[in-house]
Specification:
Helix content is 46%, strand content 15%. By secondary structure, it is of the alpha/beta class. The strands form 5 sheets. Strands 10, 11, 13, 14, 15 and 16 form a 6-stranded mixed beta sheet that branches. Helix 7 (182-193) packs antiparallel against helix 20 (494-509) and helix 11 (276-297) runs parallel beside helix 12. It is globular. The two termini are 40 Å apart.
């Protein structure tokens, strides 16, 4: 099936340019992803990178990783020549790097609107919302469990933002839907309320397969077999354990030629060493093993090398987010991923703050800039993350997407050409005058600077007298409400919609509700 045929089937309608920006439509700037024009930063020497790789090799060869409750994964490792003792698997140095060499360096994740398909890898950057929070919060209702209505609201806010590129996955847990059925409603909501790429379920193999089957209904089975249309975010049970729930879902995505995002979550001092270098070596070993397993399941399947380093308060045992040690650690992970030539998911907008306040933005910016500078290609948790990922905040979501807009300009770097050097403006203005009315300013003023929709740049008197002395969270509260009020769903072909609803109804009828 061609992309044009998929476009017609799914009822896609792309918009770009200034008119789309005004009405909040999908991809209003015509930028489905960012092509970075600034370098990723290499902070470690070759000698020190090799030390980390050698330590990871020793972990893999001398200690090994356990693969629990997945005999098929164990069989893969036996056939590949690993040293298998029950569920403990050990690997000769270099073995896993050789296996992952078959994975693509860059791949396309297709959206139902082709204008919104994203490239993941090399110099491309994709922003995606935060993922996995059981709670939601806003300034009006406070903190509460997430519902399917909240889930859909966040999809709509992401779709309306010109600065995000991806619809995300489990933006919040819709706890009003049975655990064993909510994946159907979540995937359907991504398809129904967004025409951007999205993620599927990983909480059980059959839920991963349901997610993939729904994309076959949307795109066509042949297209899905040959193209990536969905991502699955799978986590290592650190330290050094891959459990069967995750490896079975990982293999389901790889088997269908869809991309698994392989992510250890290492809380320094709990699930890994307190020292950065040791935690990075552990992360490298765990992630490399997961990436290699996708290639044993289906050689050439797309995979994303992921990482989630975090620190903790050694006084209380509480996780801490947005701290400098994991941020600088992300820079090293970026170097290691580039040596493997694999797309990278790393860092995001992390914070421990319980409110969309100064702490939230300070910690979030520390972490988000590490994702930008480490060379991350797929940045999950770009918007909405609050309270150590326990809550998705409506206000923080809007504040974070505004920051993502600034990062679009930051990643564009500095263009140097006859226009930007502006010599003609100096000739026109001369010494002692100003550039406000110059021809150069008039040519460039609409595009020269990124313009925040939330920041208040007015004098104090105007801010206090006309603006009501509002802070940014209050302005964000007003903005997300206006956005939802104006939201219009992208059109979806009626026959596709009916087929999806029929599939969901049959799957739900096949099992009793599970609330565990």
């Amino acid at each position: 099936m061609t992309e044009a045929a998929i476009d017609e089937k799914a009822g896609r309608r792309g918009r770009s340019g200034r008119s789309a920006r005004r009405d909040g439509g999908s991809n209003p700037h015509g930028v489905p992803y960012i092509v970075r024009n600034i370098p990723a930063y290499d902070i470690l020497s070759e000698e020190n990178l090799q030390k980390i790789e050698r330590t990871a090799d020793r972990i893999l060869a001398e200690i090994g990783i356990e693969f629990r409750d997945d005999p098929a994964a164990i069989d893969h490792w036996k056939r590949a020549g690993a040293d298998v003792d029950g569920v403990r698997v050990k690997f000769e140095p270099g073995m896993l790097r050789e296996i992952v060499a078959s994975a693509p360096h860059e791949f396309t994740q297709h959206a139902r609107n082709p204008a919104n398909s994203v490239q993941i890898g090399s110099d491309k950057v994709v922003f995606s919302p935060a993922y996995g929070s059981p709670f939601v919060m806003d300034l009006d209702k406070g903190r509460r469990y997430g519902t399917i209505e909240d889930f859909r609201n966040f999809i709509k806010l992401a779709q309306a933002s010109p600065w995000l590129h991806h619809s995300g996955g489990t933006i919040c847990e819709p706890v009003d839907v049975p655990v064993n059925k909510r994946h159907l409603d979540m995937v359907y909501s991504h398809i129904k309320y967004s025409d951007r790429p999205f993620m599927g379920s990983v909480t059980a193999e059959e839920r991963a397969e349901d997610s993939i089957e729904m994309t076959r209904i949307l795109f066509g089975a042949d297209f899905v077999d040959q193209n990536c249309v969905i991502l699955g975010n799978v986590n290592v049970n650190s330290p050094l354990v891959w459990d069967g729930t995750m490896t079975k879902s990982l293999r389901a995505y790889a088997r269908a030629n869809q991309a698994a995002v392989i992510v250890p979550f290492i809380l320094g001092g709990a699930m890994g060493p307190v020292t950065n270098a040791g935690a990075i070596a552990q992360s490298y070993a765990e992630t490399l093993a997961g990436c290699a397993l996708t290639q044993l399941e289906r050689k050439g399947a797309p995979v994303i090398f992921g990482n989630f380093l975090s620190s903790m308060s050694l006084r209380s045992g509480s996780p801490t987010f947005g701290t400098p040690e994991p941020a600088i650690g992300s820079m090293v992970v970026g170097q290691l991923a580039r040596r493997l030539k694999l797309p990278l998911r790393c860092a995001g907008n992390f914070t421990n703050s319980k409110l969309p306040d100064g702490q939230a933005m300070q910690e979030g910016l520390m972490s988000m800039l590490s994702a930008i500078h480490c060379g991350a290609n797929f940045i999950l948790h770009s918007a909405g993350f609050l309270d150590g990922l326990l809550a998705m905040s409506y206000e923080k979501f809007v504040m974070d997407t505004d920051l993502c807009g600034a990062l679009h300009s930051y990643l564009a770097g500095v263009t140097v050409d006859d226009n930007t050097l502006a010599f003609d403006a100096f000739e026109e203005v001369g010494p002692g005058s100003h550039f406000l009315g110059s021809a150069h300013t008039m040519r460039n003023y609409q595009t020269a600077f990124w313009d925040s929709t939330l920041s208040d740049n007015e004098p104090f008197e105007k801010w206090s007298e006309e603006g009501g002395s509002t802070d940014i969270a209050t302005r964000a509260n007003r903005q997300w409400k206006r956005t939802l009020e104006a939201y219009e769903a992208p059109p979806l072909d009626v026959a596709v919609d009916e087929a999806l609803c029929d599939f969901m109804a049959r799957r739900k009828a096949s099992m009793a509700d599970g609330w565990y």
